[in-house]
Automatic annotation (TrEMBL):
Localization: Cell membrane; Cytoplasm
Top-level taxonomic group: Bacteria
Function, as annotated: Involved in targeting and insertion of nascent membrane proteins into the cytoplasmic membrane. Acts as a receptor for the complex formed by the signal recognition particle (SRP) and the ribosome-nascent chain (RNC).
Enzyme Commission code: 3.6.5.4
Family per record: Belongs to the GTP-binding SRP family. FtsY subfamily.
Stated name of the protein: Signal recognition particle receptor FtsY
Residues annotated as transmembrane: none
Xref: PROSITE patterns: SRP54
Amino acid sequence: MSLFKKIFSKEKKETLDKGLEKSKTSFFNKLSKAVAGKSKVDDDVLDNLEEVLVSSDVGVETTLKIIDKIEERVSKDKYFGTDELNGILREEIAALLAKTNTGNETEFAIPKDIEKPYVIMVVGVNGVGKTTTIGKLAAQFKKQGLKVVLGAADTFRAAAIDQLQVWADRVDVPMVRQEMGSDPASVAYDTLQSAVTQNADVVIIDTAGRLHNKVNLMNELSKIKRVMQKVAANKPDDVLLVLDGSTGQNAFEQAKQFTKATEVTSLAVTKLDGTAKGGVVIGISDQFQIPVKYIGVGEGIDDLQVFNKIEFVDSFFK
């Protein structure tokens, strides 16, 4: 059995492989051209590799880190061949991801040492798959036998409340809502209070995805946190930022804005199955030093997966 041992179920692994197919094909097509006619890794190959990584949405800063590591290895071994490049890249990318992701996560679970309910506040701009991610998360937690309550604190859009209600009904979990235009913090307060009364295990709270005024966003998210802490101390337990992987570099910008507006503790990267920009997972994880907790690799309710860096790298370089 290889270092990249099979710790996913066969079905999950097949879904991950399929979800990363476009990214993998695009990357290796570019890589093949970068080393065409070369038997040794030299300055030209490294320059071409740099271009491949940047154009695969790994990001400039992360690309330079990877190139520096490969240059170090080339300088130690003057006969470093291009046929070894795939394996070396795989190792260096796995090492980068290891800094923020332990690599052995396979199941949807909540930390055992957290006082229940475990509260997840979900942030992200409109259109990234935030509501869908919340619905799929609720479904996965419920499958684990956990009692889940949703809170519709994105009161800026009526559609957001209704969309979340559709998911709550589909998954068959309770949802706390108020009218459009209500105070989001009030919804969060009611949601947490309801969850405590029901002895719930998990609370997932949706928030508005507006970035046009960062100060307002910052104030709103801070107020939601403060109000929740009146019900239960040290909540939320996780601030999950949802990013659309298909937007590539735009996802980096969104991550930058939200990490300035609030303390983001984990990431979910969605829509990886429909894009060749899967490299964005590597760059965002490295650049922001925030663990990627979930990835979306398909439209099905089970196609939101716990991010496992070992399996991700294995599928990407398969």
